[in-house]
Prior knowledge:
By secondary structure, the protein is an alpha+beta fold.
Amino acid sequence: xxxxxxxxxxxxxxxxxxxxxxxxxxxxxxxxxxxxxxxxxxxxxxxxxxxxxxxxxxxxxxxxxxxxxxxxxxxxxxxxxxxxxxxxxxxxxxxxxxxxxxxxxxxxxxxxxxxxxxxxxxxxxxxxxxxxxxxxxxxxxxxxxxxxxxxxxxxxxxxxxxxxxxxxxxx
Length: 171
């Protein structure tokens, strides 16, 4: 819904869900993907109507590369970024896009890795898959502060910060 306060909507305002926010990505020479410490301009912000902090975690949301549907590859002419058109004939197999629809799967993948870490490690600290609440808490407590923002953590802009899998998986 955009960068204004209290723009996070349902179902992202749910108490026990992991709400994704978006940061810029670092891809030199590609659009606005220059500063991982800054928020994606269209990422919704909290707090919720009952003053809980949302989003929970931040992941890259700008200029994320992904595959192109093969039918598009056969007929599309070169276009610009943020469309389903390839940027050049050499790039006909992928495209870039923006949005928290790209940061959400990154956070889901991180949650999956945390669950696998807990399930595969030996006792006494691990050896069982964590509960969803534990997975959420673990990810939220291994984040990185987004230095371009001038707020404290947790915040209505960046939640607990940018997901940091290196920190989360460093056991």
